[in-house]
Design a protein that fits this description.
The structure holds two protein chains of two kinds. By secondary structure, chain A is an alpha/beta fold. Chain A contains 13 helices and eight strands. In chain A, helix 2 crosses helix 11 and helix 4 runs parallel beside helix 6. In chain B, strand 8, helix 10 and strand 9 form a beta-alpha-beta unit. In chain B, helix 15 runs parallel beside helix 16 and helix 21 runs parallel beside helix 22. Classes of the chains: A alpha/beta, B alpha/beta. Chain A: It comes from Mangrovicoccus algicola.
Chain lengths: 330, 773
């Protein structure tokens, strides 16, 4: 069994360490009482990008921070060790050194690298000594419909292979049929299987039908001990959106107010522009506070976002618009 | 701060919008908008105190000249084919968009509102109103064939949404073929001056729109100017009332969009986080300087503590700062004087005051957001419009109590209801006395949806088809109302066979006049027909009380049942047709055949209004987004009315029946010339299942009693058909509670005039129902 990398390998000043969410007894009243008025949430979400704007040095600093929040991801059937090594190299040096120097920024890395189980080993090897954790998607990703015992075994195997973070998928059918107890029991078992690895619970919000279901599933996942709640596998028709994010971060805030434990948030899929990343970060800052601008509580699940951020950073340094080929491929 | 420092602190930084283009425009005009030698006043940036420009103080002579120019331009503009006007309005809309950034910055410089708001709310909505009304100009000839422009409109707008209010007023006026003299607010004249350029660029003919700057005296001169046919005002209730008084009896059309103290009802089953954001939109949009601001939080008692805690936490993340900064939530109030007024209002309140710690920029009229909780409805701040970033809060126990608290106000502009139970939310919405109601939303507007208030929030609607009524009048000139007087005592009086006393009818019971006085009613042939009471203000008081009590039940009875009652009324009138015809002959001297024909016409008119009782459809407005914007018709309320003198019976039915059909309760003043007809009709009402109190009848001198009715604070409307021109005292009296008054000069009684009466007898309310899964 390989050792577990700590989920903080970046130059971000470490936040006051927060205790891991241990979960709690399933509180069905609270689950049933969770509400989410979609129309009002849509209105609020539409204002988030308009209410906060970052310019100049602030924009550059925030974008650099965004880089450290990225779970650099490849989840393709044609992934190979070579492809994963290339991605890991990018994770280690996501932004050109001359740009960082021009910005007077320290060396930064992405928040993690996220792969399928079979790619854990090459990723762990490629990231050895960097402190960058390897995250593995698990539990019959993306549909989560393989036999339950195999899903647990998959977690155990991935943890054994060196994954420090496990992105599990919840059983959407339990949400869609209102079987909260089953959802809780499954997720709780998965959390136990994760052991020391941090568990990110993917709700697959694009398949839950209503924002109220998103709110309720968020609560059950947190009660079951999720370290992070995450929107999407990236394989659903609709992935991370601001309205869904608003619902989930409000649930995180309410859970913190109830239990004192901080749960992380990971929007995934569809966030490919630097400007979008800033909107999400402003959402986290305004709704949850600065702790959620650190990789131990916030990640972007994204593959192409980094490229746009690199271009924006170069623009900040040179004053001229950049081109994708001026930045190393991941 | 360096990138590295910010990378660690993750603070927001300044994100200022450039003021360059707007300032360049001011500079190009030498920072002065006035003819040489004119008296000027300064307009300043309230966020910094910087002088923006000097602007002409419009004099009485300037008002004369502007009105004369508008009058001269009117015939050609009104006669221009709608399509030509549509092209010009369309060009204005396009130009607003093309100049959007400069206008938004100019608006923010002049008002202190956040650039985000002027950019994302004021400008797009202003353009939308011109697009929408370009369409109305296009459709006017076909869809409003019986309506025409009113003439010269004097429009006076406030400082909270200078360009948007200009759009709301100018677009429909021009679309319908009116010409306009518009006076922007003294503190914020700049975007209107810029718009004058846009209008010229769009090809608007000379004189059709004049922007006349000045202070309150200029506005007062414009409103009172005899050459103005229609006055439209948005602003404070106080000034609105003064305008109502100043224009009383001048025969001007008038619409007023005034203050408010709009309720924000928060139920225990609401999505509280969303409701908190709703409050942010309600009371901290434009720093609460919004007539429809949800400024009164009425929260269910069991969740009040939690709501206040969450609200305080949210307030702490609101950013107050430079209005041109794209990352701030609250800018500056519009003027230091206004800042002082708001601060003085909230000083010494009995409530618990919370304002988050925040560093306010120096030199401006900035104010932190304020929550004052623990207030009761009796506290002054729960009743007075503060017009600043100050939310006041009280609690309720049951939905019915929430509605009662919400309605316990002199205003009636808007309301917001938050509950995840659609049934409960709609039930509360139905009970609210407000012109605009948002369910699980706040401050939603669109050109297609009517906006306007009840009670002391004014009258008239802006937006939608209903808004066009304020800028059109019927094409056909109606015959003048007939005057009438009691038949004089004959030389040779003949006593009746049996003494008859026509009593008043109040609350379904017969009542003697409070003053104990009656007068003889003579037939034209010299017979003494009986006696009619001489009413006094106390009779009006009693009648209004009875009507007020009967009003809710009559509305709830529903159109279908009211239709049945009106048909039954016709049936019972028909049964006594001969008697009424004889009465008409005796009291009016009409030939028998004519009297019989009038009774027939009255029967037919009753059928018309019975028909209408369940056919005044509402509408669902095609507003953008996932929202049902329903326009509902609700009864005006309690209407006081002086009946026409002639034709007596047909006139009575023509005026009373529409009020009844639409669910109003009435206080009816009988015709002086034939009071016994009304008294007899009262008996027919008694036999026709009209609930007691729905129609209350008195008699007496309209010149005495109608001004009394107009002054009565518990009447929602007053109609004067008596043929005497009482518009002066009636409109003057109506200024008290800003009730709607209707004193037409003429009416064609051969027609039902359904559109006119339906509009007068009902209020439109816009109910916004956003939806989503």
């Amino acid at each position: 069994m390989t050792s577990h990398a700590k989920p903080s390998g970046t130059a971000i000043p470490s936040s006051a360490a927060h205790a891991r969410n241990p979960g709690m007894t399933l509180d069905l009243d609270r689950v049933a009482g969770a509400s989410a008025n979609s129309a009002a949430i849509a209105r609020r979400a539409a204002q988030i990008p308009a209410r906060r704007s970052l310019k100049g040095a602030h924009q550059a600093a925030w974008l650099a921070r965004a880089v450290t929040l990225i779970d650099l991801t490849t989840l393709s059937g044609d992934d190979t060790p070579g492809r994963v090594r290339r991605l890991c190299a990018k994770a280690r040096q996501p932004v050109r050194a001359d740009l960082l120097a021009a910005l007077d920024l320290p060396a930064i890395t992405t928040g993690a690298v996220c792969v399928y189980h079979e790619m854990i080993a090459p990723a762990v090897e490629a990231l050895a000594g960097t402190g960058i954790p390897v995250a593995a998607v698990s539990t019959g990703f993306p549909a989560g419909l393989s036999p339950f015992d195999l899903r647990l075994k998959e977690i155990e195997a991935s943890v054994a292979a060196g994954a420090a973070e496990i992105d599990i998928v919840i059983s959407r059918r339990h949400v869609l049929t209102g079987n909260w107890q089953a959802l809780y029991d499954e997720t709780r078992a998965m959390r136990a299987a994760c052991g020391p690895a941090h568990m990110k619970a993917i709700l697959a919000t694009g398949e839950l039908g209503t924002l109220r279901n998103v709110a309720r599933a968020s609560w059950v996942a947190m009660m079951a001990g999720a370290d992070f709640i995450k929107t999407s596998t990236g394989k659903e028709g609709v992935n991370a959106t601001l309205p869904v994010s608003l619902v989930m971060v409000r649930a995180i805030r309410a859970y913190r107010d109830l239990t004192g434990f901080k749960v992380g948030y990971k929007p995934a899929g569809g966030i490919s522009k630097a400007k979008d990343a800033l909107s999400y970060m402003a959402l986290m800052k305004d709704e949850l506070g600065d702790d959620w601008l650190r990789p131990d509580l916030f990640r972007f699940g994204a593959s192409s976002l980094l490229g746009d951020i690199e271009r924006q950073l170069e623009h900040h340094v040179t004053g001229a618009y950049s081109a994708s080929w001026r930045h190393a491929m991941g | 701060m360096t990138v590295r420092e910010i990378f660690e602190t993750m603070e927001y930084g300044p994100a200022p919008e450039s003021a360059e283009a707007a300032l360049a425009w001011l500079d190009a005009h030498g920072r002065r908008f006035a003819p040489a030698g004119a008296e000027v006043f300064e307009t300043r940036n309230p966020a910094t105190g910087d002088l923006l420009a000097e602007v002409a103080q419009g004099s009485a002579a300037d008002v004369d000249a502007a009105v004369a120019a508008a009058r001269a331009a009117f015939p050609a503009w009104a006669a221009m084919p709608g399509h030509r006007r549509a092209r010009i309005l369309y060009a204005m809309a396009r130009l607003l968009q093309k100049h959007a950034r400069t206008l938004a910055v100019l608006e923010t410089l002049d008002t202190g509102k956040p650039i985000r708001e002027s950019r994302d709310a004021d400008l797009p909505l202003a353009a939308r109103h011109f697009y929408y009304h370009a369409g109305m100009a296009q459709l006017m000839a076909e869809e409003l064939p019986d309506r025409q422009a009113i003439g010269v409109c004097g429009q006076i707008i406030p400082w909270n949404f200078p360009l948007l209010m200009l759009a709301w007023k100018v677009a429909p006026a021009l679309a319908m073929g009116n010409t306009v003299v518009l006076k922007p607010a003294e503190w914020t004249p700049l975007t209107a001056l810029y718009f004058a350029q846009i209008a010229a660029e769009a090809g608007l003919p000379e004189g059709v729109l004049t922007i006349l700057t000045g202070d309150g005296t200029t506005g007062a001169a414009l409103a009172a100017h005899p050459g103005v046919d229609k006055v439209a005002f948005t602003g404070s209730t106080e000034v609105g009332r003064a305008i109502r008084r100043a224009t009383a009896g001048q025969g001007k059309a008038l619409t007023l969009e005034l203050g408010g103290k709009s309720a924000f009802i928060l139920a225990e089953d609401a999505d509280l986080d969303s409701a908190i954001e709703g409050l942010v939109e309600s009371i901290w949009f434009n720093g609460g300087q919004v007539c429809c601001a949800g400024s009164r939080l009425i929260v269910q008692e069991g969740i009040a503590g939690e709501v206040h805690d969450r609200l305080r936490a949210r307030m702490a993340t609101l950013r107050v700062g430079d209005p041109l900064d794209k990352s701030i939530d609250l800018g500056s109030l519009a003027d230091p004087a206004h800042h002082a007024r708001v601060a003085a209002m909230i000083a010494g309140t009995a409530g618990e005051v919370f304002a988050p710690p925040c560093v306010l920029p120096e030199g401006g009229a900035h104010m932190a957001p304020v929550l004052i909780s623990g207030l009761e409805p009796a506290d002054p701040l729960m009743q007075q419009e503060i017009f600043g970033p100050v939310l006041v809060s009280t609690t309720y126990r049951t939905p019915a109590e929430a509605v009662a608290i919400a309605n316990a106000t002199r205003y009636g502009l808007a309301a917001s209801v938050w509950s995840e139970s659609l049934g409960a939310a709609l039930d509360m919405a139905a009970g609210l006395e407000a012109g605009v109601i948002w369910v699980n939303g706040a401050n939603m507007f669109d050109a297609a949806a009517g906006f306007g208030g009840l009670r002391e929030s004014g009258f008239g609607r802006e937006g939608g088809w209903e808004g066009l009524r304020a800028y059109t009048r019927p094409k056909q000139e109606a015959p003048a109302l007939a005057a009438g007087a009691p038949v004089a005592k004959p030389q040779a009086a003949r006593a009746p066979d049996l003494d008859r006393t026509a009593k008043f009818r109040i609350g379904g019971k017969q009542a003697r006049p409070d003053g104990g006085q009656s007068r003889a009613v003579w037939a034209t042939d010299g017979r003494l027909l009986g006696h009619a009471g001489i009413g006094s203000r106390k009779d009006i008081r009693n009648a209004v009380e009875a009507a007020r009590a009967a009003r809710p039940g009559w509305e709830k009875a529903g159109g279908a049942l009211r239709a049945q009652v009106l048909y039954f009324l016709a049936e019972n009138l028909s049964a006594r047709a001969g008697e009424f015809a004889a009465g008409l002959v005796a009291q009016t001297g009409a030939p028998a055949a004519e009297a019989a024909a009038e009774v027939e016409a009255a029967l037919e008119r009753l059928f018309t209004w019975a028909a209408w009782a369940d056919k005044q459809d509402g509408a669902v407005k095609p507003v953008p987004g996932k929202v049902v914007a329903a326009m509902l018709h609700r009864p005006a309320g309690v209407i006081g009315m002086a009946l026409p003198e002639a034709p007596v019976l047909l006139g009575l039915v023509s005026v009373l029946a529409p009020a009844l059909a639409t669910g109003n309760a009435c206080v009816v003043l009988a015709a002086e010339s034939a009071p016994l007809i009304a008294a007899e009709f009262g008996q027919v009402l008694d036999t026709s299942d009209v609930p007691g109190g729905v129609v209350n009848m008195i008699s007496g001198d309209p010149a005495v009693l109608m001004p009394e009715m107009a002054r009565h604070a518990d009447l929602e409307a007053v109609w004067c058909f008596c043929g005497q021109d009482l518009s002066g005292p009636v409109e003057e009296g109506a200024a008290g509670n800003l009730k709607r008054s209707w004193c037409p000069r003429g009416m064609d009684w051969s027609r039902a005039n359904a559109a006119e009466f339906l509009a007068a007898a009902t209020e439109t309310r816009t109910l916004w129902l956003p939806y989503g899964a």
